Amino acid sequence: MKEFQKLKSSDIPHIDLYMDQVITILEQIIESYKVDQDEKIMTKTMVNNYVKSNLISKPIKKKYSRVQMMQLIMIYHLKGILTLEELEIFFKNSINDCDNSLENLYQDFLQIHEEELEEANLKVVQLYQKDKGQRIKEIMKIVIKADLNKKIAQNILKEMKELDENYSIDV
Predict the structure, then answer these.
(1) Is the entire prediction scored with pTM above 0.85?
(2) What is the pLDDT of residue 98?
(3) What share of the chain is helix, strand, coil (3-state, %, to 5)?
């Protein structure tokens, strides 16, 4: 099994990019996270849907910024767990938080991702040292933990949304 590669801020160009360039660079950055070689990391349709649903801002003169690339990378990693609506709540609350910008959020994302990645890569090595029966139990443990963590995140985001709605009604 291949090892997941560390995400680096330096992988994202400091220039605005056209859609085809965005897709190509995302494919390069996120390549090691594909489960199947045929998997599409990001398509033009996906990016357009993220723009339409206000997950990322509209491109300026058909070009996407470094910040939008950061958002797309985070969306790729979060969309397996969160719905588009939950992602919208997540980004809205993240950016409205005190002095948090998308750049700061992305740096936090990279730090947390790196910590979890080290643990995940170690777990993979340990799993392959176990017999099949033990691996099955470990897989079950991983899946149950992922399911519970997903539900925790979804419940917290639901509460955030309700608080936002209540606040906007009171104002």
Answers:
(1) yes
(2) 47
(3) 70, 5, 25
Residue indicated by tokens 């925790």: 152
Distance CA 67, CA 89 (A): 18
Give Cβ neighbours of residue 171 (< 8 Å, ≥ 6 apart): none
**Cβ of 167: how many Cβ atoms within 10 Å?**
9
DSSP 130: S
Q: Which residues of the chain have pLDDT under 70?
A: 1-2, 96-100, 167-171
Residues in the chain: 171
54 sits in the region (left: phi over 0; alpha: psi -120 to 50; else beta) called: left
Task: Provide φ and ψ at 131, rounded to 5°.
Answer: -75, 170
Q: Which residues contact 132 (CB under 8 A, 6 or more apart)?
A: none
Q: What is the pLDDT of residue 164?
A: 81
- What does the block give as tokens for 126? 């340990």
Classify strands 63-64 and 17-18 as parallel, antiparallel or unpaired. Answer: antiparallel
